[in-house]
Predict the structure.
Amino acid sequence: MLKTRMTELFGIRHPIMLAGMNWITEPKLVSAVCNAGGLGILAIARCNPKETRENIKQVRDLTDKPFGINQILIGPGAKENIAVAIEEKVPIINYSLGKPWFVNDVHAYGGKVVGTIAVAKHAAKAVQLGCDALVITGHEAAAHGAAATSMVLIPLVASMVKVPLIAAGGFYDGRGLAAALALGADGISMGSRFMVVKESMVHDNFKKLCIDASEQDTLYSHVFDGMNGRVLKTKEAEAMMKRSFPIIEAFQGALLVKKLMNLSFAKFLGATIEMLRAEEGHPLWVLARQAVGNMKHLKALNEGDVEKGILFAGQCCGGITDIPTTKELIDRVIAEAETTLSKLNTLKA
Ligand SMILES: Cc1cc2nc3c(=O)[nH]c(=O)nc-3n(C[C@H](O)[C@H](O)[C@H](O)COP(=O)(O)O)c2cc1C
C-alpha cells in the first residue's frame, strides 16, 4: 500500500484519481474507481443542474466511498452546477479553467477544493484562493495541457506550494506513479488510461484506436475546441487542422449545447454573454470552436464514428495495450509502483 498526503487528505486507499472527463466520467466509472480504492471524479460540465443532482445520487447509490465532481468554470451552467454540488455536500470539488468563488462554502461542510492548473505561476494563486490540493497538468495530457511537460512542471510546482499535488498528463502505469512521487507529487490522475477500461462508456471503436495509437499519434492545437489541447490523430482531427473557421458547424454545435443543457433561447443567449464578459471568459470564436468540438466528441464517444469523430487523448495512448477492469488496472498500477520503488531502493550503494 502507498500512503501519501493525497490518500490522507481524501481518505482513500490508493493515490490514484480518475481525471474528470466530460461525458466519460459517469457514475458507473466513477463508482468503480472509488470501490477499487481510488478517487473517482464525476464530470458535470455537460449536465444541467437536474442531471448533476441525479448523477451525484447515482454515484452515492453505487459507492459509499469519497468521490468528487469536476466542473469547467467557464462553461454555461457552471454556477448552477457548483451550487448543486455544494447543496449535496460532495466531498471533493475539482475545478478547471477559471477562479473558484465557492471555497468557503465547500470548507463550511468539510469538503475539499482541488484546483487544476497547467502553468506553474497559477499554482500559487490557486493555493492563495484556498485550494486544498492541486492537479498539475503537463503537456502530454489529453485536452488542455500547456507548454510545459509533467517532468518539468511537477518539481517546479512542488517547490512553490505546500499542498498535496496530483500529477496529470502522461500517467498510465506504476512506473509513472513512482516517477510522479519522485518528482514531488502525492499521487496521479489518469484520463486517457481510464477511458480504456471495461466500465468506460467510450465506444469500442475509439478504445481500439487508443490501443492501436503510438505515442506519436496525437495532435495538439487550438482548432479542436478553441483552447490548446490534444486529441487522437483521426481523419477528422487532421482535416480540422487544415480547415478555415467552421461557421456553419459552430451554429449546429451551439444548438446542440442549448439542447443538451435544456436552455431556452433567452437563457442560452444570457449564458453566452455572461461567458464572454467573465473575467476569465473567452472570445466568441473560442466558444464557437468549443461548440464544434463538443459535437465531434459526441460523434466519437456515442456513435464510434472514426471518420467524423474526434477524441481528446494523451500521448500515453502509446502505452495502452489492453482493456482491463477498473479494479484490475488500479491493482496493477499500485503493484508496479511498489515494485519500481523497491527496485530503485536497491540502487543505494
Ligand atoms: C475525453 C476527455 C474529456 C475531458 N474533459 C475534461 C473536463 O471536463 N474537465 C477537465 O478538467 N479536464 C478534462 N479532461 C482532461 C483530463 O481531466 C486530464 O487532465 C487528462 O486526461 C490527463 O492526461 P492523460 O490523458 O495523459 O491522463 C478531459 C480529457 C479527456 C480525454
Observations:
- The domain at 5-202+326-345 is CATH 3.20.20.70 (TIM Barrel).
- The mean pLDDT is 94.
- Residues 19-22, 24, 43, 45, 70, 72, 96, 116, 137, 140-143, 168-171, 190-193, 195, 312-314, 316 surround flavin mononucleotide (CB under 6 Å).
- The chain has 15 helices and ten strands.
